[in-house]
Specification:
Distance between the termini: 22 Å
Strand order of the largest sheet: 1-2
Number of helices: 11
Number of strands: 2
Shape: elongated
Oligomer: single chain
Radius of gyration: 18 Å
Length: 171
Amino acid sequence: MIQEEFLRMSPNACWLCKICRAEENGISSKISLEEVLQWSQSFEKLMTSKYGPMIYKTYLKTEHSDENIEFWLACEAYKKITSQRKRNSVARKLFTSYIQPQAPNEINIDSPARKAITRNIQEPTQSCFDEAQRIIYMHMERDSYPRFLESKFYQKLKHRLQTNGNNSMVN
């Protein structure tokens, strides 16, 4: 049934085709079954795999909660900034996009974490978003990750790779 449904979808409407199309999403032409199966072992394996964060972000868009992974990934990039000038600029962007009340992509963090960032935003450190990032990671791990594993989205991807026969998906 799933395979028939998948085969009836046009490549332009199929979410799997969209996420695997290298020219549209920057993904290589192969996603291995091994990698996809490892995602179900732990949230950490999903987040540290080559394609896991991008696939998970695509799923979160279907839940209208992709701001969580966008913030988490932005924090990972922020921690690697060595220039204080650039850190100040990026910290302000993170604050106005995700932290300040009524931000366009406001994340769900507790008041003490939000207040601490607000106090420290004038002279941001490499770790000033760590607590907010930890909270968001826990939200994703506890809430959306279990739904991701049970979703048609993940199940169809896994099924498609399992029935492909060579343990990879090639466009």
